[in-house]
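Researcher: Quick one. two chains, 848 residues in total.
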Amino acid sequence: MSESSIHDIDAYMSDLGVRARAAARALARATTAEKNRALLAIATRLDAARDQLAAANGRDLEAGAAKGLDAALLDRLELTPARIDAMIEGLRQIAALPDPIGAITDLDYRPSGIQVGRMRVPLGVVGIIYESRPNVTADAAALCLKSGNATVLRGGSEAFASNQAIAGCIHAGLEEVGLPADAVQVIATTDRAAVGAMITMPESIDVIIPRGGRGLIERISREARVPVIKHLDGICHVYIDAHADLDKAFAIALNAKTQRYGTCNTMETLLVDTAVAGQILPRLGAAFAERGVELRGCARTREQLPAALPASEADWDTEYLAPILSIRVVDGLDAAMDHIARHSSAHTESIVTEDYGRARRFLREVDSSSVMVNASTRFADGFEYGLGAEIGISTDKFHARGPVGLEGLTSLKFVVLGDGQVRG
Amino acid sequence: MSESSIHDIDAYMSDLGVRARAAARALARATTAEKNRALLAIATRLDAARDQLAAANGRDLEAGAAKGLDAALLDRLELTPARIDAMIEGLRQIAALPDPIGAITDLDYRPSGIQVGRMRVPLGVVGIIYESRPNVTADAAALCLKSGNATVLRGGSEAFASNQAIAGCIHAGLEEVGLPADAVQVIATTDRAAVGAMITMPESIDVIIPRGGRGLIERISREARVPVIKHLDGICHVYIDAHADLDKAFAIALNAKTQRYGTCNTMETLLVDTAVAGQILPRLGAAFAERGVELRGCARTREQLPAALPASEADWDTEYLAPILSIRVVDGLDAAMDHIARHSSAHTESIVTEDYGRARRFLREVDSSSVMVNASTRFADGFEYGLGAEIGISTDKFHARGPVGLEGLTSLKFVVLGDGQVRG
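Model:
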């Protein structure tokens, strides 16, 4: 459907929802082989359509430049040959992953004689709302397809032509292997009312995954009438304990902050036990200064690092996503965990210690989606964890927590095998 | 706090939320032994408080009778000695269940050298909204306590005195073992505004479980700003396949309908393959007639059972919760699964068949929280499934599906064990 032909958004979205629901039923029945063939067919179609993809993307880039979009946004929008390669490679990797659907676990006999187990099943229809990067269209559709879910995708208006071109390849690939094209629908209008409809259609969409800035995610969470897998801030902490191996502490703190600045699993606040502050802070301070990281510290930190700026209360609650680090000297494990409980966004925290009991307490008591001992917070992602792929990182506890791979897009139903049993 | 002293509901609820959040942190840290001691202490307190419980319940019953509550409601409201016994026994059983919290699963080495696993953790604060039965106060608090969650309970106004008396025993038991009394808070006002506040406090309450009629659950789901574990209708089906063992079919259909009429896992519609309708329907019809079950059938059913009333379209979508059964003759497995996809509430469906391939398809393709082969739908509950206890049955797919025991009140966080690893 061309954009100009969509006048009645509610009717368009309602029809799209009905078709998604029907496709979801077909997809839930699809075999592993069919789903994998579809993923590979889509990869082949994308490979063959490089010229069309580049042309469509060129139109988006031109329109974006004319609208005065900033350079960072235009960069995210661009489908370079390397990014098209990555999209194709991603599809092939997802085809190679094990199929979670249909697996039955814990099939046990009960005293009544029935066997009870749980079978992994798709959620149904997954709605994804994202901003500028057009490669999300293929990545998200592939994860949903592999996990047996139909998908409704709403990309950024600035990537409209690119997303529609990718959607064309996806539909061709699905139809080639006999799966319904409606299994992946990319909303063919930039009208914002489509998003409002999408997040309030529980009869057609089972879960919404927003990918984008905090503003987008908060607005969607507030207005949605459908469950949302949210990814809000990553205010991650490293705590250097009194019993830390200081060489490990040095390497981990440096890596957690400087390996990449703009990612959600980057350390934003360093906590240091007062017993080792004098030994580790000057060494870390020099290394951070060398890399141009601005330091903001509490009073005790600034005794060790006079060049650091004074940290304000707001610093402890800030996700910098930049070469800035707040540092606080604390009196032991409980003070560190109190700081984390108060200021963390519950994304990822790491303790550096050689003390068994403190490691054990930190693992148990810190309530974050990833809790680490002697490792860099930068490991918190689906690929490093072995999930094979990642559709997002959930900062919620309900349903999915932390990096969300294929399993996060599924549910478990009970299966009961009997031999004529009735209840007495 | 006495009810009359609560004037500002928002301030009361906000304070209660802050205290629940603080208690949740203490409870998440509590050991298995502490939680079990608390459960047993509460059981002992309830046992010692039988007179006070009976007196409080008597006041509720008197007020209810004066208000003209119907007999069924007054019956649900009554705390008979047997029901107090059951409450006490329930607490002891929950103390005896394994503690799900802290269990680490799937701890595997990754190529980077880190070990990644998942640890089961509490959800945090669970809000429960229920109607007349005061025993829910103890049952729900016990399940939440064992799973490390703080609880905010809002019972029916007609059970106010009974619930407060039970709450007194719970608080005394918690304090006796050194756990915070705020771990279980029973809202001390019958003002309906408290429910509105409770379902819109995501900062203090992590999930709402409504237990009651469809009207209550729909209203809460519509207005909640917090995830809801819902239990809507149970329109359950038994499908008698052409290859069924007809003796098993007879026993299962009879049990699924008549073992209890008012439960959500009772069969409401029987589907029969046309190939066996002539053999099984007259036999079943006689048995149902003997038990006073009203039959409503499609035209082909009524050829076999002329005494059956004609079924209307609305019958296929009705949860009778009564001695009424709708019956439809269908042309094979696909027609049966189509009927189920269109009319089931996705609670529980059972196929009766000796055909391996059809059993396998039914298990895979029917999208309900419980899918059975050759067993009565009446088995769909947490005790029969071996969950040990049940806080409700979820008709959603997100987070928890089907009977919800302790595990449904938990989440999984990632744990990472390293030895100084940093990301390259």
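The longest helix of chain B spans residues 9-29.
Researcher: Thanks, that's what I needed.
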